[in-house]
Amino acid sequence: MSILLESFENHNLFAIYPHIFRCDTLGCVVFGQYHTKKCKGVPFEYLSFLSWWFGDRATPVLIPNTEVKPVSTDGSRKARVGHRQLRELKTKYFAKYGGVFCFSGIIEFMSWSSKNRSIYLGGLILILVIVFALPVYNIFNKEPTCFDGKQNSNERGVDCGGGCEKICGFTVAEPLILWTRSFEVRDGVYNSVAMIENPNLSAGAQDVFYTFTLLDDKGVLVYERKGKTDIPAQTRFPIFEGTIVTRERAPDKTFFEFTSKVEWLTQENISSNLRINKRGIINTDSSPRVDVELENRGFVSIKDVELFAIIYDMADNAMASSKTLVENISPDSMEKVTFTWPNPFKSPIGRVEILPKFGTRN
After folding, report:
1. What total number of domains does the chain contain?
2. Over the Cα atoms of the chain, what is R_g?
């Protein structure tokens, strides 16, 4: 039998008033048969055990009087005293402990030291919950970011789309390889060019790896050159590899491929701020030369502009190329650029194309 119930029986309260000892007015049942009843769905023996845990012994405080009289209906003085005590227990005790929850009555029965221990233990449990529960909560409830490896917030994919700089691959088109050529600059030295088109309006990429492969007329490898490039948004641009030395072996075919996954980023197309003025080609019979003027019409500097010159024959096939780097073009200013070749071209010139390639980090 539980300690709390033993305390009640030691005071003869269950023997005298077994019908009135209920926990509170919020739904606790009468437990004259205390070993089978529950308070708010919790066995009373369990509550009494908790009371024993918090204090030495849960001892109820009786109504002050000389003694507790049994109730009878004979109208005698003993009967009237018993009725009065019954009324006092109902009105004072249960008004005091009802309306909170069942365990409140048990706490009230504790001694002053037991109550303090209960408060300290409750405070310790609360501190432990705060110390251990909050870090666990923060681990499993982190603020969504564009680098957490999960699709959350308004992202359209894992760490892409929505408010992220990275663009989901399924929303953009892959870059197109329009053509690939190798041009002889002098005996045993070649330039290789791949013409690329990015059709995406506001999507560019950085540090995309590629490979040029040069084969002879028998399909045997002559030379392989690897590199990396940025892909500007919505533009057509060449990827250029110069000074490829093959010595006596002449390349017959040139292949180009991207060898790494393209990670697309949101990017603005700034090419509209740059105007290219070319003066035509001169010295075609000796050392061909093309002079170009670049004009920055924007309000910010344009940095690290790669500028390419492509020479086409009368059938509009590319037959020569050259590349230079312009490190900075200040706002509302002009820069002069010159392209040269050491030997005359083998075919008549059809046209000259000047193409800029802007760094994606501008």
Report:
1. 3
2. 46
